[in-house]
Amino acid sequence: MYILAVETATTTCSVALASDTSILAEMLLHEQHHSENVIPLIERLVADAVCVRHEIGCIAVDIGPGSFTGLRVGISTAQGLAFALGCPIVGVSSLEILAQQVTAPEASVCPMIEAPRGQVYTCLYKMDPNGRLAMSREPTVARPDVWVRLLSGTVVFTGLGALRYRNLIAASYSGRALFMIPPLAQPRASTLAVIAWEAYREGRACIPELLKPQYIRQPDAVLPYPHTSDLCK
Length: 233
Known about the structure:
By secondary structure, the protein is α/β, with parallel strands linked by helices. It is 30% helix and 30% strand.
């Protein structure tokens, strides 16, 4: 069985195909026209991986927070594919994806995604006694200079929000601030697929119509859902 992962929450559109925890293929496109690019990217991924469509047993998708338009494109595409293939779906937070891309066992991890009005979507993760990242502060939307004053110790800041406000964070934070390199500051479909596989094995997949986005703040406008192609015909 394969898991197909779709990630469109930020400026990068990426898709990945995984079997168990092995990533078979991943494709990324650094363009913002996700509604035009995501289905052709999936079609190419499946074709290049020589994957038979009925072998896809679960769809994984980034549910946010992030770009409202990007989230709607990704979620509606994933739901359409899951309905057409008759398989369950797993939604994963973009903040969790970013946090899982950090390797710093002694530090807390603070993912940040850009939000309107000079704010960021953020939360905090710490390593639990079992060596797994666990959320220690719930997701919120805040000004980065205000948010970091609530934190302490060594913190790895990651995500495009952290890169954009790096100087402000460094000036406002009283502890030791580390920053991830740009290539790991975007949530990737390959990381999403690994997280989703574990969720699927634990029985945390759901039917497509139950999947909800994690906006954190409400969108300013209602946008139409895009259409899927003939991928699942």
